[in-house]
């Protein structure tokens, strides 16, 4: 597909012509595509044409995200749970746990529904015999949270190797490709970054203070090969109890920690298409916050709302969601990034500066993509909020851990991205898999960008 510039993504805030929207809602995607072609010939604004071109991409990709019919999804569940039935699927839908769309008059279910339900639904977990069992990752996390609360400061030295390669079926000899893999950036909690090894080729490594840090490889491939980077870094996590009235405020030296007026504006403004102050979100913010004027208490009320009301759910690709925070607020479900964006947007609506961080969650039990938020309150400075980790704690009745993730983070973080919706230093020709973030990597050739299902990625913890 054609390249969409960051500025052009703002067009996602525009409504589609009614004819196209009606076909889309009915699952008549072929008719919607034909209608788009007709509308492209009409005397409409160029910005709406950009929106229509993007909708062509969405209509092409949505069926890939929702591959299973009702019969197929039940059969998939029955491979793990033989007595899974139509009644079970109906319950899951009614409890807002199953995302689906219409395709050609028939319901189609999201590709990650089985994983979502097996990970999150207590009844299904009991039938699988895994309810309440701790994974190695969770055991490590619980111990680290306790240690941090006791010691107040904990450091971790983390050693990772991440890699990416094209699947053999899409590789062609002579391809000229460009590869991006995320790297830890030296901001706030992260320091002592060392790149220990990386694949050969023309290599560009972003500055350590990049907000969207990556290593870029450019090469012409005679044979398919793996691109990798190995690095280590230190994370320092400092604990502050924002729930204890007599908690000691960290001492700040000098004035460097304070946001300038310009920085305040950056972290308070809208950022289309997703961080926007829609009528519904403004009303919701008002209902959540009420008459509260203190910034810390405003942020706390927003955090409480999300952790207590929003269910964690694996998502379709972010590039297919038109307004991520509003999706979360209207559907009361979302993954880590969706929840973080709702927190950020509601904070900004209420005048509390808030920003984005993301990269990997990494310990010896698990390494995978993760997103969270920062918010700024004087005299503390920058604080953290991880609504999805807090919400997971709330779901199992762990109030101590839920409270921990308002103000604090565990040290198991590789933070590559310190702003939402940025561009790579070595620019891509085609739109990224995720146009808003970089966690697993990107590959493109001279003729197209490759989708996630056309690549193989690996993340290995080496400590």
Low-confidence stretches: none
Count of DSSP strands: 18
Largest sheet: 5 strands, antiparallel
Give the count of helical stretches. Answer: 15
How would you describe this protein?
- The protein is α+β, with helices and mostly antiparallel strands and 463 residues long.
- The chain folds into four domains: 59 residues, no CATH class; 61 residues, no CATH class; 122 residues, Immunoglobulin-like (Sandwich), CATH 2.60.40; 166 residues, C8orf32 fold.
- It has 15 helices and 18 strands.
- The strands form five sheets. A five-stranded antiparallel sheet has the order 15-14-13-12-16.
- Strand 7 and strand 8 form a beta hairpin.
- Helix 2 packs antiparallel against helix 3 and helix 10 packs across helix 13.
- The longest helix has 20 residues.
- It is globular, with a radius of gyration of 23 Å.
- It starts with 17 loop residues before the first helix and ends with a strand.
